[in-house]
Every structure is written in structure tokens, then in C-alpha cells.
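SEVERITY: medium
COMPONENT: batch folding queue
REPORTER: lab tech (J.R.)

DESCRIPTION
The queue accepted two submissions in a row. Attaching both inputs and their returned C-alpha cells so the on-call engineer can compare them side by side.

ATTACHMENT 1
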Amino acid sequence: MGYTAVIGMEVHAQILTRSKMFCACSADYAGAPPNSHTCPTCLGMPGALPTANKAAIEATIRTGLALSCQIPPFAKFDRKNYPYPDLPKGYQISQYDLPLCRDGQLTLRTDAGEREIRIRRVHLEEDTAKLLHQPDATLIDYNRAGVPLMEIVTEADLRTAEEAGRYLVALRRILRYLGVSTGNMEEGAMRCEANVSVRPEGTSELGTKVEIKNLNSFRSVRQAIAYESERQIEVLEAGGEVHQVTMGWDEDAHRTVFQRSKEYAEDYRYFPEPDLPPMVHDPAWIAQLRDSLPELPASVAARFAELGIRPEDAELLAEDRTVASYADSALSTGAEQGIDATTIANWMTGELFRWLSENNASIDEIPVTPESLVASIALVENGTINQNVAKNVLAEMLDTGRDAASIIDERGLRQISDRAALQETVQRIIAANPGPAEDFRSGKQAALNYLMGQVMRETRGKANAGLVRELLQAELDG
């Protein structure tokens, strides 16, 4: 019997604000001594009262709008009670039945085409402290406790581990475009749990779901969901029963491990937070937040694809908002000079991205403007330099910030397109290499590439490659 996985995702994203969610402590705790970013409010001292962070509320609503959510006119905070030590109050201020955002969707591109992944809710809460487990004790750092945390919950619309991974990539891209979260999973700024069940193919009844925690990378998400799906199938095929529990992901053993029995909403004893008033949203304010949204990555990628750029490359260029802005400027400049959008995209996703990766740099750190990049590409298009020389020139531009024309003139790199001069060189190379010349005449096409390489070597890479090939074929055929 075949089985289908049914997957829902719960993603927690730290919101980029100056202060914590319910107090004035700095939310920038990276590298700070343990428990140095704390106050009576985030430490749960008696008599300390919370005050809601408006910037975090705005960021959450903007995220909901970007995910096509409905923004109810009324929302409230709730107390979520539990006995863990990572919040000293003994409860977490969160949202339960009246979240800030609900009923949205995210369009996901899959191998089978586009699919709409439904977003059940986007709500706002406070982050917990960090637990540091030692052999004989557990230490607690409360610097993170109280940092604004947004939770984005999907319906069980995902069907494979690969789809779940793609969903997280697409969601993080949106968060970064909005500037509401870094989404850096390796730093804990984005954390997720997966709810996984399986059911026989062709059926609609949901199986028993298992929650997987401790997923801190895209690879972990894919591996954990794939493993847990197979584990549940093996249990069912052996005649067993899947129990609703919480599992953790063991990164070293590459398997899910039992943590505790599943907790339900009633276990948390939710009730309205008495120290914070309900929120009533002014429709005009919501409209202002909607108008503040940037063009979102899916729209940017679609716009690039309409210019003839391959969909995969269009998505790469739309991955980051600063990259997309750079690409927009380059494409606009290229269009004015009659340079094809695909050509510019190829240079960006090829040579430019390679340099960024090798130098661990971001695109806003490079000394080459979009206009300078296009100017160097134009020199290839008009025959001033060939492609190989252009790659070296661009690398020097990126290293030094100099313009292409000055590098070319200083190093004498202008392309040789003089037919008579190249014909003489071609004849000399053929005469010096009778073996490869005869191989080509015998039908071995690879021999032509060898002879071309010899011509390019003699001309120090400056020969017009297209013209060299034409001249070689004419001489050899003759």
C-alpha cells in the first residue's frame, strides 16, 4: 500500500525591533554577557507590568498582509501557562483565539507546478530564555526572553519533505524583503516545528500527527520530515499505531527521538492577558501598512522572467531585495543600450555571484555599480574584448573598483579582430600542428578546439574567438 505524507509547519521568526516585546530592554543581545539584557518585567518580578511594542505589532501585520491574510479589526493577547523555566513568569504572553492575522496563503512553486499553501494564522508572542544544559545542571540566559517572536502556522497542505523545505525558503525570502526578520536559522532567528502524519494514498482522512522540534536548518527540516514519514509508514505496515507525541530531531543520529506526550491547548489553560488591553485596529492604519509593502519576491521573479530570463535565474535574482534592486538597475541600463536581459542575468548569476561567494561578500559591499557592470558587458557585445578577457576584467573591477575601459587600455586587452592578422596566425598554427589539422580533416571535431586554443595562446587570449573559428575551418576545409 502506498502512503502520502500530510505536513503542516509552525515557524517562529524573531522580529527586528530595538526593544523587547513587553519592556524597554534592548533586543540586540548577540554577544552580550548572560542575563545582562533583563529588567523586572522580562524577569517576571512581582508588580512589573508589560507594555506592548507597537513596532512588533506593525511588523506582524505587514507580514500577514504580505501573506494575503485577513487582518481582523479586533485582537488580543493571552496567557499561555506552562511550568518550564525558560520564562520566569511561569507563562508566556501569546495569542490564542484572536490573532493579529489569519486565513492567508503563500504560492509555492513545486515540480508539479504552483500550489497555494494556506496560512492559518500569524500571531505575536514573546520569545523564551535560552537553556544551556550542563552535565550536572541547566543554566539559563534570559537575554532572549521577551524578544518579539512571530509565529506563522500553515494548514496541513504540504506533501513532501522537499515541499516543506521550499516553503521555508520562500517564507524567509518574504520576511527578509519586508525587513521584519533576518530569518537566519543558524542564529536561532527563525525556528520551526513540523507536524507530520501519513495516510493511505487516495484517502482524505487525516492520520495521527507527530510534532517534530529542534529543526534549525533547511537540511534538518527535509531530513527530519523524510525520516519521520518513513518511520510512521513502517509502524502502520507492521500493524502498529502512531501516537500523537512530540519528537526531537537528533542531528548526529539522523533520526527523530521521543521527547514527551503531545500537549493540547487545554493543557496551557489560555485566558486573556489581564495586564494588556485588547487591540482595535483603525482601517486607515491597516491601509497605510498595506501601502508600505515592497514589491514581493514572487512578483519580482515573475517580472524578471517576463524579460526572457530563465525562471530559475529569475528566482536567484529575486532571492534578496538588494540583489533584486541591483538587477533592476542593471537591466534598465542594459535595455537603454540594447543589451539582452538574459545576457545581463547570466553575468550576474555567473561571474558576479561566484565572486560574492568566494569573497563572502554581499552585493551592497561591492565597488562595481550596475552601470559599470553593464559597461563591461557592452565591451563584449561590441567586440572590444572577448568573453574570457571580460571575466578577468570584471574580477579586477570587483577587486579594485576600477572601470573596465581603464583596465583594458592599461593592460592592452582589446580584442584582435583584424582578419588579415588573424589569418596569418591561423596559417602558422596549422603549419606547426599537422597532426591535429589532419585529425580534424578526418572528422575529429575536438581537434578544432585544440587548434583554437593554440591561436588564443599565441594572441594572449585577445583574438576574436568567433573569427578564429571561422578562419580555422576555412583553412582546414581548403
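ATTACHMENT 2
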Amino acid sequence: MYELLFVYGTLRSEFDNPFARRLRAEARLLGRATVVGSIYRVAEYPGFWPEPAGVVHGEVYELMSPGTLQALDEYEGQQYERVAATVSTGERVWIYRFERQPPLALRIASGDFCAP
């Protein structure tokens, strides 16, 4: 059984960092999707939080290697928790949620980290 992962920040296909490259090597990009919630610019990267309800843009990957999630958990660090969500295509996915709701002033209104 393969698992699905929704990415909305520096793991998206637009980025060229070691973990984004690893994700592309060990997973299959299924396409773009959205999830209900908001993203916030918490540093040079975004953080997802389920409220306020908005639209978060990202990509869904089908993970092909069992070690990928563990490596990505380490990359995301203790500030993020991997939780289940449902994307616009109706599929259940993993998503990395920030540890606490960031200040509303940091919200990316477009819901798209690559097109704020």
C-alpha cells in the first residue's frame, strides 16, 4: 500500500533542495491539489494550520519508498507534526501541520507559497 503526501512549501516541485530532490526521486507526483486551511510565512518557509478555513495550494505525491516519510519527518523537525487531511481530489493524505497556530498577520492570503 502506498501513502500519499500533500506538500505546500519547500518540498514542492518548484524547489531544488536535497529533500525536495529526494521526494521527487522516491515518489511519483500525482498533480496539484488544494486542502482546506491556511498557510503562514513562519520564516523562509511556510507553516500549515487548519484555521481559518481557506484554500492551500500544493501537490500530491505517491510515496514509493518506505523510508521517505521518516526522512521527511526529520527534515520538517519538531516544529511540524504529520497529520491526515483530505485534499480537493477526495484523497486522504499526510500533511505537515505547524506546531501551533501562527499569528494571523503572517497568513499568506493567496494560500500559495510560490505565488504569495
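NOTES FROM REPORTER
The chain is about 15% helix and 40% strand.
No errors were logged for either attachment.
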